[in-house]
Amino acid sequence: MEHIVNTDLGGYLRQMRERIRPEQVGLENRRSRRVPGLRREEVAAMAGVSQTYYTRLEQSQTAHASPQILLAIARALELGPDEQAYLLKIGTSVQAPQQQAPRTDQLSPSTRMLVGSLGNAAVAVLNYRCDILAWNSQYHRLFAPHLDFGLPEIAEERPNLIKLNFLDENVRALYGDWSMESQSNVTYLRFICGNHRHDAQLAGLIGELTIQSEEFAELWCRQRVANCIEGTKLFDHPVVGELELMYHSADLQDGNILKFYHAVPDSPHEAALQLLTVDLDSVRSR
């Protein structure tokens, strides 16, 4: 049986419509409104399509539309670049997934060398489902020192970063702003789903998180989309204390993602990050 990630076009349009206030798009808000946001007829008028056609899209009576119509709707709903890209992916005709060479999630020797060479940063390689394929000492000790360092080498036991963030209390407690982190995780995962709608493992991951975390389920239903590739995060680490780290994601040639965290050079945060490489238990025992 084929598993398809739930990327419902109608539900997404409805969520995006309801978040727009009439005054944001130059409409007067005189009449009483029974529902939040814009009315369907208002979106249809601004997009230049008939109300009947737009309603069919939102009620999932029509599964897809032309890119031109979707772009017009995106402009009417004031979608950002990531949201517009996502709408085009889920709103155009879904073709049968192409036969691709099986992905083994194996890392090339050069990628392994890269992970080991970035000594001033916490570095990991993730696949698009956010399974951790490799990590260096800083990344391991920053996020999950309670897990065995060798777990990414075992395909059946590889940690998944989003599962750790939602389901592992040790990891959740690291973030200075968990509310923002949780939203970032879910918006990024939905963005990824636009490219991998036929991925059974990805569908399984979303299903597992939905069942095990009410918080994830509530955020997933909001249908927010964003490709989170760089920024700054504040950590409260149980060993080295407060850490303010910048993060970046980079696509690798093999389809995996290089994720690394680093601090401002010569700052206390960089010193704290480097302290994670020290075997503190050994130092204390001397």
Element order: H for helix, E for strand: HHHHHHEEHHHHHHEEEHH
Q: Give the termini distance in whole angstroms.
A: 59 Å
Approximate helicity band: 40-55%
Radius of gyration: 22 Å
- Discrete helix count: 14
Spans of 5+ residues with little confidence (pLDDT < 50)? 96-102, 280-286
In one word, what is the shape?
elongated
Q: Structural class of the helix and strand makeup?
A: alpha+beta
Beta-strand content: 5-15%
Give the number of DSSP strands: 5
- Can you give the mean pLDDT? 84
Strand order of the largest sheet: 2-1-5-4-3
What's the main sheet like? 5 strands, antiparallel
Describe the secondary-structure layout:
Elements: H1 9-18, H2 40-47, H3 51-58, H4 67-76, H5 81-91, H6 109-117, E1 122-126, E2 132-135, H7 137-143, H8 161-167, H9 169-172, H10 178-193, H11 200-212, H12 214-221, E3 230-237, E4 241-251, E5 257-262, H13 268-275, H14 280-285
Antiparallel strand pairs: 1-2, 1-5, 3-4, 4-5
Helix pairs in contact: 2-3, 2-4, 4-5, 10-12, 11-12
Relevant terms:
elongated; alpha+beta; disordered C terminus; 5 strands; five-stranded antiparallel sheet; 286 residues
